[in-house]
Amino acid sequence: MNSRLRKWISRKDQLDSQTISLSNKSSLEELPREIVWKNIEYAPGTIFHLRMTSRTLRSHVDAFIHQPDTNTTLELIALIYANSGMP
Fold this sequence. Notes:
single chain, mainly alpha, 6 helices, 0% strand
């Protein structure tokens, strides 16, 4: 084996051992669903914008909406939406 090939293999092994897992998700998307739900309860007016942010957050918002305990929160969200002027 020539020296260039040996160096390349050595370098590749070093890079493989140092590989960092990169995620395309934001910090907010990495949060557990229950924490996202708490954020929705704290600031229900953000639900529409939050839902448009990503598929992950949309699924968290949809799951929150379909909970049986969210009737009061949904009424508040509907009130905020009606007063926001959003289409």
